[in-house]
Specification:
single chain; mainly alpha; three-stranded antiparallel β-sheet; 6 strands; about 50% helix; binds carboxymethyl coenzyme *A
Length: about 425
């Protein structure tokens, strides 16, 4: 970390001596105050539930400017990465290695990922242990964690080559596992990966082909899926990424760490929001019901939220939502679904919410999940699998962040402290005195 000459002085009104703390500058974004010596010097902790003001690490992977609505992977705007024709694996290479690949590096990377797409044949028996109606996220938490029991040859986190191999295995095998989870849920045979197809085309093939008839890959739909993957590939220190880092900080193996990330992503406030946004649209049902729904959202006691709106960091239109909206048009046009009622409802809801004082004053804008559910539904992906697709896309981000953490000399096991508000020490009373 670059040291800075600037310092912050913290003084107290309770008689404790004041303390000077260094301030570090990032390349862009807010400065940070280094409070690591605070407890030693003052006996006090900081209090920041939800990490509203806390930078838990330094990172050079992804940068978000929430006010501007800007998202950069390794400095490159998400719009350029999504629109300039580069595919998902190009973004993967960038996130993992810091630079875009040249043609030769790209080919080598694609070949390596492609050669790792199959999972151990034994994995099928894990799937068979699940009920057919199990939620795919529970299946993925289990099966991704289980990968650790197959790849003992890449679990030494202190070996750079092992880390590299695990990273490739995770990125390559996630589509296979997600497609297997889907096939299992509908009682169809698992489909082996095809190495002559691109990453996204192969995923569509494993999802939608069956042994009874040929499957024709639709390039427009493949491009749409590829864009979903690019847009979800990384997003700075969000809840699941922080979970991966925290799990990894103890030295846990990468498969276990990514399984932890998947568990966190499952929650409706995070990755589960695209599923929740689509269910919400289905529940609203018609443009006529929007006004009543918005009233419920504004009523704090109703517990109803406008899913797919609002973001901890973006206080402007989520740049990914704009791109996803564009993809939504492309996919619906390709499939002749321009008049899709849910899409029309979403557009009407977005318009009303963007003009409503409640949302405007709170800077609540559509996030990527507002549109990604509609696109995925049009691609034929069942609602319950939406968060699984998010996990598939985010695996590269989790892995890149995990690798960055392991190589950071300042890395320590994550161990937050607390403000204890429970009972001070007391004696256990006899049973008849309780
Ligand atoms: N609908 C209605 N009101 C909302 C919403 C919403 N979706 N989001 C925030 N608010 C209100 C909230 O009630 C609060 O109002 P008040 O100031 O009157 O108490 C105000 O806006 C500030 O919200 P907050 O809860 O302090 O914001 P947060 O940063 O803690 O929450 C969020 C961010 C994403 C959890 C929240 O906006 C939300 O639950 N949105 C819906 C779920 C969703 O779409 N999540 C996907 C996030 S994007 C995908 C990803 O990157 O993982």
């Amino acid at each position: 970390m670059t040291n800075s000459e600037t310092k912050a002085t913290l003084s107290f009104s309770d008689g404790s001596p004041s303390i000077e703390m260094p301030i570090y500058k990032g390349s862009i974004g807010p400065d940070v105050i280094d409070i690591r010596k605070l407890y030693g010097a003052t006996g006090k902790f900081t209090y920041d539930p939800g990490f509203m003001s806390t930078a838990a690490c330094n990172s050079s992977i992804t940068y978000i400017d929430g006010d501007k609505g800007e998202l950069l992977y390794r400095g490159y705007p998400i719009e350029q990465l999504a629109q300039n024709g580069g595919d998902f694996l190009e973004s993967c290479y960038l996130l993992l290695n810091g630079e875009l690949p040249n043609a030769e590096q790209k080919q080598k990377f694609v070949d390596t990922v492609t050669k790792h797409t199959m999972v151990h044949e034994q994995m099928q028996f894990f799937f068979r242990g699940f009920r057919r109606d199990a939620h795919p996220m529970s299946v993925l938490v289990g099966t991704v964690g289980a990968l650790a029991s197959f790849y003992h040859d890449s679990l030494d986190i202190n070996d750079a080559h092992h880390r590299e191999v695990s990273a490739i295995r995770l990125i390559a095998k996630m589509p296979t596992l997600v497609a297997m989870a889907y096939k299992y849920s509908i009682g169809q045979p698992f489909v082996y990966p095809r190495n002559d197809l691109s990453y996204s085309a192969n995923f569509m093939y494993m999802m939608f082909s069956n042994p009874c008839e040929p499957y024709k890959v639709n390039e427009v739909l493949v491009r749409a899926l590829d864009r979903i993957l690019i847009l979800h590939a990384d997003h700075e220190q969000n809840a699941s990424t922080s979970t991966v880092r925290l799990a990894g900080s103890s030295g846990a193996n990468p498969f276990a760490c990514i399984a932890a990330g998947i568990a966190c992503l499952w929650g409706p406030a995070h990755g589960g929001a695209n599923e929740a946004a689509l269910s919400m649209l289905e529940e609203i049902g018609s443009v006529d019901n929007i006004a009543h729904f918005i009233e419920q959202v504004k009523d704090k006691n109703s517990g109803v939220k406008l899913m797919g709106f609002g973001h901890r960091v973006y206080k402007n239109y989520d740049p990914r939502a704009k791109l996803m909206r564009e993809t939504c048009y492309e996919v619906l046009n390709e499939l002749g679904l321009q008049d899709d009622p849910l899409f029309k409802l979403a557009m009407a809801l977005e318009k009303i919410a963007l003009e409503d004082e409640y949302f405007v004053s709170r800077k609540l804008y559509p996030n990527v999940d507002f549109y990604s559910g509609i696109v995925q539904r049009a691609l034929g992906i069942p609602t319950a699998l939406f968060t699984g697709i998010f996990a598939l896309a985010r695996t590269v981000g989790w892995v890149a962040q995990w690798k960055e953490m392991i190589s950071d000399p300042e890395q320590k096991i994550g161990r937050p402290r607390q403000l204890f508000v429970g009972s001070p020490q007391r004696d256990v009373p006899d049973m008849d005195k309780r």
